[in-house]
Every structure is written in C-alpha cells, then in structure tokens.
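Supplementary Methods, section 5.1.

A reviewer requested that the exact input to the structure prediction be made available. We therefore reproduce it here, unchanged from the version used in the analyses.
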Amino acid sequence: MTTIEASLAAMGLELPPPPRPIAAFVPFTRDGNTVYLAGQVNELGGVPTLRGKVPRDHSIEAATEAAQVCALNLLACLKLACGGDLDKVERCLSVRGFVNASDGFAQVPMVINGASNLFLALWGEQGRHARTAVGVAALPQDAVVEVDAIFRVRA
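The structure derived from this sequence is encoded token-by-token as follows.
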C-alpha cells in the first residue's frame, strides 16, 4: 500500500477499480512526466452514484461528495499510469470540473471543491492546482459531476 493509499484509508476512503471507458478514449495518456487523465463521472461499478441536476435534484453537499467520487476514479486511473505506485506523483497541475447544473446555478465551484479538496488533503501544497469549473446542460449517463485532471509524476 502506498503512502497515498494509506492516507485515503485514514480518511475512510479507498480507490475503486479503474472505470472502463464507455466511448472511444483511454483512461489516460502520458507524455514524459505529465499524465493527462480522461474525465471521470461520479460512478462506481459502472453506475453513477447520483443522476440529475444540481440543485434541482441534488443538494450542493451531495454533489460535492459526487465530485470526490470522480476524484477517486481519477486516482484509480492515475495509479495505472504510475505503474501501481501513487507515491510517484509529484503534483496536481490542473483540474477541470463539469456540473450537470440547473439553469442559473452559480455555485459550480463549490461542487468541484469535492475533488480539489481531496487532492489538497493528499498532497498538501503539491495538490494545489489550476482549475476550471463549468455548469453544463448534460453529462454522460446523466451523472451529476465529471472531472478530469493533469498530474506531474516521477519517471
């Protein structure tokens, strides 16, 4: 178990199996020490944990938890990119989050904090990243949240 996985366990969290792509893409690409992670929705076992819009169907708090599920899925894919060793991660560079939002919902950044805060908790200052948070009309599988990320890793 890596230090990162031990930290997750101390938070009461664990990595899910890496999600399988549902379309024509791969879970990550690596260019040198940079890993580009494909967007992950709030799914576990191929089924979204929440479906619908924020805040019409789900509270900001529930959607924030869904964003954390996205982050866990990203970490599962990042583990693959690192050959099974999340301790090779040097820092999180960027996060982009998309919220299946009701018209006029302006608190999208609060939802994406569910992912950002997990990366900060795991890597401290090295988890601080540039970020985009966008409200959208729809997401795959009617998921509530989708998040992608870019990380720098050691060779």
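The chain has one domain: 3-15+27-153. These observations are discussed further in the main text.
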